[in-house]
Amino acid sequence: MTNGPTSLVSIPEKEKMYQEIVNYSDETTIIHSNQKVLYINKSGAEFFKAKQEEVVGADVVGVFTDDFKELITKRIQKGMEDRTIGELMETTVRRFDGTLADVELYCYPVQYGETIAIQSIMRDITLQKKMSHDFLQLKNEISAPIVPIIDGLAVLPLVGSVDGDRSMRLLDVIPQKVQGENLHCLIIDVSGIYNIDNVVAEFLYKIDQIMRLLGIQIIFTGIRPELALKAVDVRIDFSKLKTIGTVKQALKQYLLAN
């Protein structure tokens, strides 16, 4: 009498078969349990710029940057306890040579031999993110055209949303654009800005200070009452800024004065 079918596959053989299948995947695939890496495929080791044996046994949370580690730890704990699938998310990892990479991360529970584990799949989106960032920067630069009116005078209409990132880019781009324009005055119209918040208020104050240092007077037009209230909230004295209701009124005043 036999104890069972001779075709049964042992646990180590199952793990080996699983590894052989996953190893041919082009995407980084990591199997981990209790935050320790049990297996990483060849593509994954190449992505992390390490050998497979160097990654196995490592703390899987350790590859993530500090701002993501707490979130990833909780995500792993939930996946292990509830056996739930971790939804697709974007995060940043640090490879073994110290370089950073942006990835899409997708996780789901698996049975790895006799071990309850989680399989994490990472897709490198570093180039995609860079191209998106470069495109956004170009878009923001195009959406902030400086329009010459007469010698010494130009108008800059700002349109869309001005968040922290765009604010910093504009503070860098605008002074560069006025170089060589021989401007004495720049009218910045903010009537087309969607968001009225502290970021916008601080941006107006900072760009005014920068342009003063370059010897260029700024006239702001299109400032709505709610923006003035936001300026009060962050203790920015808008009385130091030269403001006029509309671009047409600003042009008229400039021409009369010159």
UniProtKB/TrEMBL annotation:
Keywords: Kinase, Transferase. It holds the Pfam family STAS. One of its GO terms (molecular function) is kinase activity. CDD domains: STAS_RsbR_RsbS_like (cd07041). Residues 143-254 form the STAS domain. InterPro entries: Bact_StressResp_Reg, PAS, PAS-like_dom_sf, PAS_fold, STAS_dom, STAS_dom_sf. SMART domains: PAS. This is Histidine kinase.
